[in-house]
UniProtKB/TrEMBL annotation:
Record-linked Gene3D superfamilies: FAD/NAD(P)-binding domain
Classification of source organism: Bacteria, Bacillati, Actinomycetota, Actinomycetes, Streptosporangiales
Lineage: superkingdom: Bacteria
InterPro entries: FAD-bind_Monooxygenase_sf (IPR051209), FAD/NAD-bd_sf (IPR036188)
Pfam family, one: Pyr_redox_3
Name of the protein: FAD-dependent pyridine nucleotide-disulphide oxidoreductase
Amino acid sequence: MDSSHEVAIIGSGFGGLGMAIRLKQAGMHDLVVLEKADEIGGTWRDNTYPGAACDVPSHLYSFSFEPKPDWSRKFPPQPEILEYLRHCARKYGVMPHIRFGTEVTEARFDGEAGLWRISTTTGQLSARVLVAACGQLNRPALPDIPGRDSFGGIAFHSARWDHSADLDGKRVAVIGTGASAIQFVPELAKRVGRLHVFQRSAQYIIDKPDRPYTALEQALARHVPGWRQLQRALIYTLLEARALGFIKYPWLLAPAAWRFKKNLHAHIKDPALREALTPDYPMGCKRILLSNDYYPALAEPHVELITDPIERITADGIRTRDGIERKVDAIVYGTGFHANDFLAPMKIVGLDDRELNEAWQGGASAHLGITVSGFPNLFLLYGPYTNLGHNSIIYMLESQIRYVMGCLRAMRHARLRWIDVRPDVQSAFERRMQQAMRDTVWSRGCTSWYMTADGKVVNNWPGFTFAYRNATRRPDPRHFRVRR
């Protein structure tokens, strides 16, 4: 395992694979991809729960350089996305560069040598450049509920679904009602005898315009020149038009609010249940969800929605604050991820032995979401301020990858040992982000995974995606300190 490479990439999801592909296309073959699991795919490898699918249309949820003409549906299901990633890794020759079962525990920058010294569960290696493509949604979060470890039945997080668990006819509790839960709750409702759904806060859920693609549509995408590009451009434009509602004028989300009310009233006839499912915060403050079957599932007689706070998990059930204890055979946690801990639990040490978690004590920050001052030759993909509420993250990732490639070309051309974004440049970017964030809907009275515990939004990009692409079009040499 002890080896040296030009570039080491952590993670083999969309970001890591896209980075590796672009490196190889540019003739940079001295690279290694470090993957802690035994397969590629990132979040689409981990989330195999029933009903798992994407809420971004298929033709936009793919690399621009590798379109897929034969998507089965308008919104891609998890198995199809994972197979697409496998196809990309095989086609572009990335698989030989991947070291599976290799989890990074520490990366320490050696300023004199200009190398990252990387410790993993399978040994040591070094790299001139370190690209962290870990994503924001890769570490499942379990709720801090008293008695959680005392439960004697089946229990697992939705991102680690236990497919061996026999849930048919059983009493099952679901804790959490986020993006994953609204997909697997309807599937569970078809199987279990009794389903208790514990909701902390209501979500805005609108109808999902999903359907299978016809054979004619697939043929057009495969054989008609420009058809795929036109579909992709139309989808992108329609989604991008929603940005103003998130970043500046929340009243522009009124059509989506109307769709929410229509969807809710169409499927929920019980006034009390309808009220419980109505959010008390502005639309868009939390992620807007898409589903056609979540509300119908909650209306089933064997499904119960509970809004009273959970007091304790017992050995054989869940007790809420009103004193009611519901006996269950299994608990499924749909409680999201540690989205603000971007590189945890890795230990990242930069110049002057400074740790990244120390630099990020006030919340994660990176210039353009990519580079962190004091950590030379470290590049983040899907880092702070790069998540979206309205469009495809693949578009953002390709912008970041192009920026990193620009940095690497500049380093090679000028024969630089390392580059490090200047602290004043990063601070200025951070100020612009937080100033822009004040106008967004994400800062208007709700708590979400977009923000830190003290209420600072650090995950999302407060602008148009084309503005981000323009900002990352090429690295500005004036933004960096360099060592030749």
